[in-house]
Structures
1.
Amino acid sequence: MEKTKRYLKVYEQVREDIIKGRYSVGTKLPSKRVMAEAMGVSVITIEHAYELLTEEGYISPKEKSGYFVSFDDKEIYTGAGSKNKTTVAEDNSNLIKEKAASSDQFSMSTLRVPKFSYSIYAKTVRRVLSEYGSFVMNKSPKNGTEELRRAIAAYLSRSRRLLVSPDQIIVGAGAEYLYLLIVQTFGRDIVYGVESPSYQKIAKVYTAGGADIHMLKLGNDGIESEELWNADVKVLHITPYRSFPSGVTASAAKKREYLKWSRNKDGFIVEDDFESEFTPSRKPEETIFSLDEEGRVIYVNTFTRTIGSYVRAAYMVLPKSLLPLFAEKTGFYECPVPTLDQLVIAALLNSGDFERHINKVRRQNRKKDIENNPQDDII
């Protein structure tokens, strides 16, 4: 545990130095050995920290040369001088098109779903029935049971570093249900931006809810800047981690560009955090919600993927500034998730069984990632 804390501390310190401009774009970082001596830690600790910074797009490795800063928070599309970003995106456009074309042959439901332990789930159901008795037959409060919302808030705090209150959490029967509530909240008189390509149900659900959508072309690390800034969009729906079917993950700089867009355009972001908990990385994925300081990001996640398709429950976290509007526009909707299901999920979160499952899958994914992508060590 102490070792983990050390490399995360190094990661956070170097990341902060990069964000604050102490290491500018293109600057070569000190070698792992030099950095280890300067910070009083092992070379392995520095190696793990550099791996995390590389995964998130803060630095880029060059074989036999070292690590160079690639994060540029100052980049922002202005119409002129943006050709380099567009060209980089076009370099991967064929790969993205190939993956999108193959999406007709499989769907999200056919992808490998890590199985949650049946015995643990069944044991938890029995325990909840024993502890709560006939209370499980009660109708759920409109936004979800207090027990589940408290459990989610605690889980997000300890595992994702998201500090939210239970009042900010809305429980629904799957992510698609929550998308419809978002349309109901913001209305149908604005344009909603959706990644292209993306999981087909996203656009279909927004359209079914009466929303006008604009498909925004994905580049190699997120929506292409020209598309993002020129579209007349007020709500942007994005999947920063491994957008389906392209597999594109937003870089650290792209995530901050999305936030700049929301500020400059007076827009809002729906961060669909599907499957990011299964990242093979040594640390949880950095969420856009955690970077947001102005209350412009709605965080959406689902238990259908992490526990199983038999659990029709998802949740979204609203910024506090949106709570009055949400209550006004959708406060009359009943929560469709049965109380029993919510109490079972809360028990799995509180007992640690949920996180043990997540950590097990992450270790398996990390092992497979290493086996499938062996890399030479970089000095």
Note: The domain at 118-357 is CATH 3.40.640.10 (Aspartate Aminotransferase; domain 2).
2.
Amino acid sequence: MIKTLRQKFIVIMMSIVSILLITIFLTIITIMSSSLKEQNTAKLRQLLQTGVLQDYSQGTFKGGTDSRVHALIVELKADGSYYIAANQFFFLEEGLIEDIVKAAALSKSDSGVLKEYSLRYLKYQTSTTLRIAFADTSVEAGIIKDLMLICGFICSMSLLAFFVLSVFLARWAVRPVENAWQRQKRFVADASHELKTPLTVILSNAEMLQSGENMDEKAQERVDNILAEGIRMKRLIENMLTLAKSDYAENTLVMSRVNLSDIILDSVLLYESAAYDDNKQLSFNVAEGVIVNGDADKLRQVIDILLDNALKYSNEGSQITVDLSVQYRREALVRVRSEGEAIPREELQNIFIRFYRVDKARENHGGFGLGLSIAEEIIRSHRGRIWAESDSSGNTFSFILPLSNH
């Protein structure tokens, strides 16, 4: 939980900073691009008014042999002929001026950019001619490109630096929660462990009293109640110890190549008699030879939890089905389906929370709301995933595990 909390803190902080940096740099680039456009358009406007190049220059152009126009003023007559009023250029290709004049003249806008020629143009109608001024935009584009590279580099370095900082900030911010969580886990583990000894003594004495003679019916009933509740409490303590160990991330798993098919079949055979006693049908469809890496005892515990839930919360005379199949040749899929009252869809995620119950009626089955939490912790420790589904006819609990690679 603490690790997930740190990760969420880092993701939120990095998202906020990323959005801010990207917004700032996009704003800078947009403002710079707009400013350059306005400056160059103003110079073109000056050229149109004077008809003289004066000191208009955008600097050195890229590619020594590439034909680029610094600035050009063309007078287009009514008959379609034109002449160059002023120019400042390197070597122009034959027919290039005619092409750009034609493209600009046909444009409906008085200003714009001829992208295929990297030229900005501005038109002005005189009394006898259409005056068109052109200016090369390659330097302008180069400035924007360089600015984008600089901003991208600064943004990347800033994000990297802030990521390192956010890791330390996450640890510092979550430390009080982590300390409280550790104290809570230690208390649960210690309290559960300390309760086992006196509870064992209580159960032993209750069993002795139960087997004794010369006890009236009322006293016998009380002893039976003590023993039943003691056993129930012992089961709760064992479940709490199991969860406490998983919280401490203790390496209690004995990992090896195990046959999941055999584990499921063994559990199904054990529960067949219980299903028969409850007037329920237990069927299975288990693929053979499904091998996974895991702890056999823990995986058997998961199957037992799901089968126990299916027996408790299914209707009398209903069908319980256990399936094992291989998905995409890389995952083992286990499904335990039971017919009964459907779990509301909005509750499907909550049922894996510790001590959570969908409704109070389920308390009559003697559970504590810890079984599914234990199953989830075991499957998660095996790098798998467990979930629940429901429909009008019943509920299905499923989990997947990666297959063994060797």
Note: The first strand starts at residue 69 and ends at 76.
3.
Amino acid sequence: MLGGGQLGRMMSMAAARLGYKTHIYCPEKNNPAEQVSYRATHADYDDIPALEKFAGEVDVVTYEFENIPVSTVEAITKTTPVYPNSKVLEVSQDRLTEKNFLNDLGIVTAPYEGVSSLAQAVDVLNDISYPAVLKTRRFGYDGKGQAIVKNGDDLIAAWQKLSSDKVIVEGFIDFDIEISVLAIRGQDGEIKCFAPVENQHKNHILDLSIAPARIDDEIRDEAIKQATKIIKEIDYVGVLTVEFFVSKNDPMLRVNEIAPRVHNSGHWTIEACLSSQFEQHIRAICGLPLGDVSFKGEARMTNLIGEDILKMPTLLNDPAANVHHYGKYEVRAGRKMGHVTWLYPDKI
């Protein structure tokens, strides 16, 4: 496992349930995944000797976040299978490349254009118009690396804030809800999708996921169809997450982004589905049959951000609350410390 965060932690626990031992590789010590894994290597992602030694001690490699260097995956792939492959990292790590890939598949996104200067951004906004969103092409998540611009003054401030010459300008989508589909593809090409989940955010960080999403069947079917097309075309193995914008005044279902990994919006699957997203990912990368994606009941998952984790004693008094602590030692504002899922079997 490349990466030692909470996603790696939950995948390691799922792997243990299936009889596998997980070896974590990441620079940071005392990480959440290491606490529940068989072994850990602490080294940088560009340390080739350490990567080669690690690769020689495991049978298959995966990763728990998408900013792993492509060169790291390519180095390991020389001796050991890595799923998903490096191609999806090349696509998903650059917002411009990602949107080009999606549009080439006939999948609709927000209108967009890559720019490298403030003057170019001004020209693009003459076509896309305000409001719009400026985003760095790389290394953005949970609202980082982006800014909304409503006029020319906003544009100047946003450009200075992003401090990059690799930026993408996106038209602002006035969406009603955001949904995500978690698709799984096995080594044999089998594809399954969990039903779309509805996501609500606070301060650009996921706050609440409602599963299944409160959408029409037509939208549900189209979202699953598009996620299936994406995961097949990119020759993906594992869990891939596709985020969509749904708008009452827009007939198009628009993809916001893809994430080549298990995802925060799928944590509810641990309690609500026969096989969680984490187990599905392990099944896929280890060449096992994919599990059942059907629901045990409606689920609602909320993140415990920063000092929310201090509510844990109270939450544990709620017999319906499924509480997860990620084992992080330091509480910080905006940091994901855990989550809670409530399951409603009579509402499915």
Note: The chain has three domains: 6-82, 111-171, 177-347.
4.
Amino acid sequence: MTGYLIRPGRIADAADLARLQAEVQLQTLTGGQPHPGIAAWTEDLLDGHPTVTPDNFLVAEHEATGRPVASLAALRQEWSLAGVRLPIVQIELVGTAPEHRGNRLTERLFAALHQTCDTSGVPLQMIEGIPYFYRRLGYDYALVADGAATLPMPVPAGPAGELMMRPATAADADTLAAVDRRLADGDTLFCPRDATVWRYEITGRRPADIARREVAVLLRGSVVRGYLVHGGRPSATGELIVVAAACDVHADWPHAANSMYAYLGELCRHHEASAMRPLLGPDHPLVRFGPPGVPRRPRSWYLRTGDPAGLLARLRPLLHARWQAAGMRWPAPTITIDSYGRAARLEFTDGELTSVTATRGAVNPSMDPATHAAIPPGALLQLALGHRTVSEVLDIWPDCVLRDRLTEQFLTAAFPRMPVRVWPRT
């Protein structure tokens, strides 16, 4: 479509992009006025964020005026799946000026982003967004973002024992990064932060930044044993939001949870919050060792991969280790997994996985004798990220077809359910 130029962001765009996003995001909360928290967040991303540069934004420029009229932020980060690093782009701040809507600018911005990710080897893109909308752009619901119960005030807590809480300082950044490094090697999907990012989270954001969070550290004596991350003030609905909680020693969790709930209860009383809402899964230790609350339906994260074989290739060490731990050896040279358009060939030597390569998909993979598994893209994402097991996928997707029982057993061992402990970098 003529009249618009899709280009990377520039530092000179900062004021225009902050104004644009503030005028189109969360307008129901401001009565149609610009949202100051969105403006501050956009400014922070464009000025001083340790992992974001202006060209992480994509901009639709109106050629007649030279002004940005639509944009998105593509925040590059690295998640860890049971110790395997996965490059991922988290998409935020998607917005178009009202007078320029209807020109398919969002579609064009996403097409440019997908082309960049596919050519640069970033296998995953993620967005938490409008229900169903991003399915039209190639995204599938692939992860549960939270789902833990809301706790009305007062928040009860048991005895904390020897574990205490205090607000974090910039001096804690190296220790928090070390905690994350250890947790990233566990059996979870996790987003580790290095010391520079932790320092930014603790002291680097503007006070008005809507993505700003407060960090507290868990102490045994003077030794940091974990952390708690929460909103700096109650949400628009009066709830204090908890976005992350970690404990370096799993056996500490019963007492750690008591210390964290006591700390959060004091914060709720100080801020006159009506409730505490964890953006954590129901299986998170903080939730399991805490009091019952009011159940909630989880939010959804939508993901896309333009390179299923590339994603599985990154997971090759993990797949190899899982099959080895299960004592399983594949009796043939290859397994072909077709995602209805693109396929991955897993190659084996003496029964052990040695490589994963892309190959042409079959015209009708569910009926193709050379295809071992025909798995829709959304189902493959759910399996790869541990959101669902093979049996659950087979139950939900009738167009997920496995050749035989042996294939099912091998894929079941390859893709167990994994806890999600992701607090994305924003």
Note: The radius of gyration is 23 Å.
